[in-house]
Predict the 3D structure of the following.
Amino acid sequence: MHIVHSITRPAELRYDDLLRKISALSRNLAELASAIGHAEQRDLHTKVQELVTGQEAMKTSLEKMTTLALQTNEKIATESTINASARIELRQTLSEIQLSQFIAFLSTPKLLDPTRTLQASLFMRNRRRLKKSNTGPSFWLDPRMKDWNQCTTSSLVMINGTRKTRFHVKDFCADSIKLLRDSHRPVIWALKTIAPQESTETQEEQVSTIEILKCLIAQAIQANASIHTDSALAPRLHAYLAANTEEDWFNILASVLQGIPLLYIIIDVELLHPSLATLTEDFSWPAAFMSIFSGLEQRNVNTVLKVTLVSYGSPLFRDVMTSEHRSLVVPVGGVGSMKPSTRAAIRRGGASIRGRGSRNGAGCR
């Protein structure tokens, strides 16, 4: 059959057309594949060109951003230098002359000059000590004085004497201040004294509550070295210029106390002249100091104040007294000035109280 078919149906006649068709289709397929490859290459080339263009744009943007960042850093560095210089200038410690000028701005009457009044008080105390009969009640052994002196928090005590015992109270204040100064403990004071050189006109000088507060503020600024800078004193000076009432001045006093761990304050309220005592009817020295205590505690200021208010007959001291404040009063002289139980306690423990009190400050002798 193969032989017959090779004659009757040769392969060239039977398969050549199919082979040519297959070859043509193969060539078409190859041409299509080549065209598709070229198209894909063109698309890929276009995308690569777009990526390159984007990278160049990003590079340009990065260069601009880098330039801006460098310029910003330079400006920040310049401003930081300027601000640092300004801060250094503001925090610069005041010289003694500047500090003296600032304190002089808080001018007070000569009658309240702390150094002068202390020297006069010590002088008068020494003169009185020459008299053997100059003895008085040992009120500093009162348990209330002991509690005031040994308390680890801010506390207030009020010593209420009489006309007869005024010199004993004054000598106690002078001795306490001298003891504290000798032991290098911060203490500020406002004492009433009459020096031999004073004239009648000076003796009759009238003193107000605000003038006493100015005197205390000036002393507190001198004692508090942590605020001897421009940045610390500038806002306080602004508050000083805007102060009008006793409350304003007490706020200034509280503001200059921060930075002093322990401070004793001794005030003779007999300095106050009745006509100039207060600007507001509801003002009270004990209540004002209690307010300072609570304010320091609320602000977490670690400053302990030991305040002593001294009087020996002033009606101002009695008029503002409340039931709460009466428990803080230590009477000196007069009938019933000391309870029998207190006198017995003093007799039993006077020596031990004296020994412990001398280590704690001016509250006991």
